[in-house]
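re: that chain from earlier
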Amino acid sequence: MSDDQVSTQDTMRERADESRLKLWLLVGANRLLVTAVLSTTFFVLFMLGALADPTLSDLLEDRGVIESLFSSMVSALITGVTLVVTISQLIVSQENGPLGEQRTRMSETMDFRDYVKELVGKPAPADPSTFLRDIVGATQTRAEDVRERVQSTNDPELQDEVDELVDSIIGNSETVQEKLDGAQFGTFDVVYASMDYNYAWKIFQIERIEDDYEDVLEDEHFDAFDELRTSLIMFAPAREHIKTLYFQWELIDLSRMILYAAIPALLVSGMMLTFVDASTLPGTTLGAENVLWAVGIAFTFTLVPFLMLTAYVLRIATVAKRTLAIGALILRDSQR
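^ sequence. v structure.
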């Protein structure tokens, strides 16, 4: 059995086989910073395009062009705010329900916490990052137990494969636990760190080793593998639950931020409709008409709610895609 059939690249950065800058922009960077980057990029491209086409400055001499542009933005902003309010209502509606449903949710949550208590040997923590860290730590402990028990066999190939699998689990566990240490829910850090735990590949390898060495392994070995497999399986629903809570948290924050940005954007659009034309801002600055600067800045500012939505949706969609499967399913070509 070759080495690459047992271990694999564990962190999301390694599995994605994509540039660090791209992953940083998609998921790692602060969303307000990404919004600022998108806004700045749009403004620079808008001004460069306007300067490359001198006829645009002539068009802005006609007040009707400015009125048409910003009246469309007013309509778009109002529509966008209405959509955001609808999204917020959908999120809140998921938390509402009759008493029976709420009791079922609570019962299922407490049952899972009892399972985790049995797994880690102590009460399940309330902090999400510590909760995940304890589960990951349990997999590390059980992986060591598997290695110790397999040493009693007389099959060097089995021992080598188990050593490699355990080393992979321990290395991945230590990396994830380090990232989870001190991570606060409400930021992206908890979900981001949990995405680096490649539990699916490890579950598959356990099942494969049990099947390949069925004639060599004894009951005590199967018990150790099953305990390790159970700890890896427990990580999946725990991460999915915390990821779902984060998505709801993030969408509520997004709704609030867009509402905050939409009001000044509407004000700017109204001022451009009412007061600004070529005669209001005569002259040039840095080789461009002042009215062009005003239109470029105002137009970019009115786009901030949309660019903010883009920044948040990029992260949510990327996380959803990279955690789409639950269980021992490998969707990315880089791991097959």
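Residues 85 and 255 are 7 Å apart (CA to CA).
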